[in-house]
Amino acid sequence: MSNRPKRIRIVSELGKPQTLADGEEQFISYGRGTRLVILGLGPDPAAIVPLLPSEDVSYIECPEFETQMPPNWARALPRSWVRVNINDLDPETVRVSRILQYRPAQRLFPSFWGPILARIQWLRLSQRAPQARNDAEVWIPAKPDGLLVPELKSALEACGRHVRLLPPDALPRTLPKFLARSRPALFLSINFAGLDPLGETFHLLRAAGSEVAVWCVDNPFHLLSGVKAGWWRKAALLVTDDSFLPLLREHGAQRVLHMPLAAWPEHFDAGSNGPDQDVSGRLVFVGRSQFPKKQGFFAGLDLPDMAWREALHMLDIGERPDFLWWRQRLAVRELWPASTVRRAGLGADECSRELRSRCLRTAARDAPLTVFGDMVWREAAPEATDLRPEVDYYGPLRHIYAQAAACLNVTSLLLPTGLNQRHFDVWAAGGLLITDATPGLSLFPEELCRETRFRWPEEIGSIFHRLTTDKSLCADLSREWRKLILAEHTYRHRMERLLNWLELEKASS
Prior knowledge:
This protein is α/β, with parallel strands linked by helices.
């Protein structure tokens, strides 16, 4: 029978039981100095006390960890050891101290340890880093051709900012190297790219005095299902769908802003002058049948048959079984940190696919329809016989929008009151958009929306024929919509609003 003592189990920050590793190999040491600062004492401080000095020792411990320790845990600490907190970690203390860190601590209670470890890292780094923040600099963790990157880079540069793109997959490992050279005013992440689940990147940027904003282009709670600590509550969160604002606040978000998508007129302005796309006189639909890696995201989930039948009936009568409806129907109360939110998302996404299929089948019957997308649409909408391959967003898409008689849009039910890129791009390109009656259209004037929206798929054909036969109405709508988009809804407008909201000092252009 083994005499090995039973390991202590505790409940972590996210409510998960964890067995604590012990022994001196669970500690890492860095820094040089005559003082010792211990970050986390581990489950058995009695085992490390004999290995450490008795004087000039201070320590920090997480209260949530400490309350779960046995009674003899605290009695093992020498009386000469001094308990300190994050405010005691000034530059001089860090400079003259050696740090001893219990490695599992950050994973167990990242919201407590994240700011502390980041403060120490920044104080050590700042000895060779620039002391002043560069208020003209914005960092975006993304590839040059990534989602929204060209648009945001162009818009921020028009606002007088210098934009630097960082390889997102290399963070947080490479962040100290970048911070040693420059400190940005803003770190702008798209869909949490470049931000690790535990928040190391976030905390180090905040310790360096940089703002961190996350633009949730997709459903924010889908994105948050991959975040493993509560640091996101302190980030500046931007959402394209304002129905998520109260939900995010209920879950602890401190700063949230509704920031819809927008147009990039510099790219879409010349849409009609490009090569012929063979879409003249046709109704065009452009889109994937599902978002990337959908199967893995929803793996192991299913929907109750009765709820699915209810959702189909809602579609029959022109109602929208969106993410919020599915959340209520499935009684998904907690949207984070539990991943049960994905079940509500599955319902909304399957309904989106069903709605798109219905719209395409009906449109193909009543209008000359061309679909640009993957081959799955062949099964979902077999009537759409003119099926063409997917197109590059930054390539011929603008020409397709401009040259088609009209473009068809069906908004995802994952965003109950959201808008997608087509709501802006088609008009910016000088095209004509026929769209479903998403509540997100309230962003625009009613007199413009009512001419081009449909509630039932059966309305698509009649709207198409009315608009394409009334050339005067068609031209007026295209002109007024484009005028509105360029005046109020470009990415420069969005970036100006973001910078003002964050109260970042205006940089000289």
